Amino acid sequence: MPKTSESFGERLKLENPAHILGFLLKSLQHTLRQRFDETLRKQGVELSFAQFSALFNLHCDPGVAGAQLARRAMVSAQTMNSALRGLELDGYIERRPHPSSRRADSWSLTDAGLEELERARKVGSAIFAQMLGGFVPKEIAAFEDYLRRCITALGGDSVAIAALPPTARARPQRRQNAGVSSTRNV
Fold it and tell me: Which domains does the chain have, with CATH numbers?
């Protein structure tokens, strides 16, 4: 088969323009996570993405079990367990028996964990500002809406909503102009 100069993404776009979207989404996710991990290290924040996610979710929802943290971070239970053990050793979180399950642990953030989370959030904010700097707020809201609609169309709405901290789920629905209702699920 002769080699061509077109990339995998270009080939997808030629065959079916809609197929490039999945490729671009995965590429964005990979690039964002890689940039986040690299920038955390450069700033001296020694957290993995799973550890950052655990700290963030424990800040929003104290006492949550490790299995729920794994689902929210989109990592395996084993990966989250390892992340939690490391955070516990570093003094960033504390473990207690879960109030409703004898088999689960309940985790909470320590003051040191909150400080480390704030350092990581500053890094994340700078990365998101860079990534979204070419968009106006209305475009960002539309982009979020499009992504949520794709998730819903694939039957993943309950997973996407459950992955959000409770404070993010409580936002009211918005309506678009001209009598067209938004399918935004929050």
Answer: 10-133 (1.10.10.10), 134-176 (no CATH)
